[in-house]
């Protein structure tokens, strides 16, 4: 049986980033994906500057557009536009981005097997010394079995690693639906450096227009219980921007898992990263940033275990709880507050240069949600209180409507 220091299941942004960092660190790595690459994945493909700054690799070969401005509308009403003096988000297509990252992991020394779904996982030991953990993991595919010291679950929402090992976070579930509007004569001038965000019309989410090289990606996201609203909302969004919903191609939806703080994402030699760990940013619906960051943290914890400095991957969960989760929790609070009454926030975004610039700093990774909470000073405790009240009210209304 072939043996490795680490097996990474799933070659999305989280898995390939983990495999890349491990291979560069000198570990022997097997990166497995069930899909034959290049493969697409339901996603807007927006890579914010804060996300791009987390990977030690130049993404420019797969960047199709660089966004410096946004067009905001409230519930499909009149739009206003904002512009920034520097890049905010890179527009990619996941088929190209993911293949590029997997190739980078492979070039760094990881063995990349695409088109090879993981069918079963066994973990022989859930603790003990590094030597006791050696080759504790067995992964089975249709092509054979592989042994490993550690296992990274990067297989997205509802992946096989979490199911097989029980290392699964508790999550709140959102969903999103997207499609492409081809632009055979080129993307309209107005969209070339600008993305569109329509807010306030979807429970917990928003609608977007993301320009790519030769098409516009249009999508909507919401809490899972509002999934039935997504198709009509997407059609309305297309009509609002004169994009004709019948022109939408490759319509696809997928889950966005939001981790309940403190829930399990590592045990023994197993750690979950990216969507498999439920690490989507609730307010932004952005998962590539946290996929990259959790991949980096998981690789560091794995290298410590392999070096004999740790007995298990629990330091990964502690690192996420200390460095990532407070941000996600702040985002979750702000999401509840925003969706309780979107119009005032929309008005602030339109009128306040300071608020717009904070938004740009956040997207660029120069400031964080926690910085925002610090900025509002004495109001900070009220944010948690009112977010919890808004959440209770939303859930009570939902229960009443059922
Ligand atoms: C409609 C939509 C739009 C979005 N837009 C954005 C956006 O613009 N920007 C952003 O930052 N985030 C966006 N997100 C979120 C983002 O797509 C995810 O958070 C991100 O893909 C998570 O990356 P990942 O590597 O954890 O998982 P994935 O990208 O889901 O990768 C998981 C991989 O695991 C593989 N896999 C699954 N099961 C197995 C198995 N049994 N064996 C082997 N391999 C397996 C899959 O084939 C897949 O390649 C969007 C999500 C949706 C649904």
Summarize it:
With 402 residues, this protein is an alpha/beta fold. It has 13 helices and 18 strands.
Record the SSE blueprint.
Elements: E1 2-9, H1 13-24, E2 29-32, E3 46-48, H2 49-52, E4 65-67, E5 69-74, E6 79-83, E7 89-91, H3 94-107, E8 111-113, E9 118-123, H4 130-133, E10 137-141, E11 144-153, H5 160-165, E12 171-182, E13 194-199, E14 206-211, E15 215-223, H6 230-240, E16 249-259, E17 266-267, E18 270-272, H7 288-306, H8 314-323, H9 325-340, H10 342-351, H11 353-363, H12 369-375, H13 380-401
Parallel strand pairs: 1-2, 1-11, 2-8, 5-13, 11-18
Antiparallel strand pairs: 3-7, 4-7, 5-6, 9-10, 10-11, 12-15, 12-16, 13-14, 14-15, 17-18
Helix pairs in contact: 1-3, 1-7, 7-8, 9-13
Helix content estimate: 25-40%
Number of helices: 13
Class computed from helices, strands and strand pairing:
alpha/beta
CATH topology of the largest domain: FAD/NAD(P)-binding domain
Name the bound molecules: flavin-adenine dinucleotide
Number of domains: 3
At the fourth CATH level, what is the homologous superfamily of the largest domain? FAD/NAD(P)-binding domain
Task: List low-pLDDT spans.
Answer: none
Description:
With 402 residues, this protein is α/β, with parallel strands linked by helices. It folds into three domains: 2-43 and 94-170 and 259-327, FAD/NAD(P)-binding domain (3-Layer(bba) Sandwich); 66-90 and 172-258, D-Amino Acid Oxidase, subunit A, domain 2 (D-Amino Acid Oxidase, Chain A, domain 2, 2-Layer Sandwich); 328-401, no CATH class. It contains 13 helices and 18 strands. The strands form three sheets. Strands 1, 2, 8, 9, 10, 11, 17 and 18 form an eight-stranded mixed sheet that branches. The termini are far apart. The mean pLDDT is 94.
């Amino acid at each position: 049986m072939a043996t490795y220091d680490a097996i990474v299941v799933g070659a999305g942004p989280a898995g390939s980033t983990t495999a890349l960092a491990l291979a560069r660190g000198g570990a022997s790595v097997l990166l497995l994906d069930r899909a034959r690459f290049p493969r697409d994945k339901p996603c807007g493909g927006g890579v914010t500057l804060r996300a791009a700054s987390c990977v030690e690799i130049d993404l420019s070969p797969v960047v199709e557009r660089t966004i410096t401005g946004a067009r905001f509308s409230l519930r499909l009403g009149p739009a206003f536009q904002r512009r920034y003096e520097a890049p905010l988000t890179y527009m990619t297509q996941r088929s190209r981005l993911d293949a590029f990252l997997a190739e980078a992991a492979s070039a760094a020394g990881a063995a990349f097997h695409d088109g090879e779904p993981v069918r079963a996982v066994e973990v022989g030991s859930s603790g003990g010394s590094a030597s006791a953990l050696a080759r504790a993991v067995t992964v089975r595919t249709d092509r054979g079995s592989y042994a490993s010291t550690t296992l990274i679950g990067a297989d997205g929402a509802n992946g096989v690693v979490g199911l097989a090992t029980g290392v699964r976070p508790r999550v709140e579930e959102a969903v999103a639906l997207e499609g492409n509007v081809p632009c055979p004569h080129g993307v309209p001038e107005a969209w070339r450096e600008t993305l569109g965000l329509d807010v306030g019309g979807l429970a917990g989410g928003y609608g977007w227009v993301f320009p790519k090289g030769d098409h516009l990606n249009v999508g909507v996201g919401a809490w899972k219980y509002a999934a039935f609203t997504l198709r009509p909302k997407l059609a309305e969004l297309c009509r609002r921007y004169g994009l004709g919903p019948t022109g939408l191609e490759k319509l696809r939806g997928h889950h966005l898992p939001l981790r309940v703080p403190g829930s399990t994402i590592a045990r023994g030699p197993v750690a979950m990263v990216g969507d498999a760990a439920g690490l989507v940013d609730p307010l932004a619906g952005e998962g590539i940033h946290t996929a990259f960051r959790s991949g980096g943290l998981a690789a560091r914890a794995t290298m410590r275990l392999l070096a004999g400095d740790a007995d298990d991957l629990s330091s990964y969960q502690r690192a996420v709880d200390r460095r990532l989760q407070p941000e996600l929790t702040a985002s979750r609070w702000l999401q509840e507050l925003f969706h309780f009454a979107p119009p005032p926030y929309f008005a602030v975004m339109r009128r306040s240069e300071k608020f717009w610039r904070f938004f740009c700093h956040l997207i660029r990774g120069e400031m964080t949600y926690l910085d925002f909470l610090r900025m509002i000073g004495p109001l900070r405790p009220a944010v948690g209180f009112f977010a919890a009240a808004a959440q209770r009210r939303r859930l009570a209304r939902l229960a009443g409507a059922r």
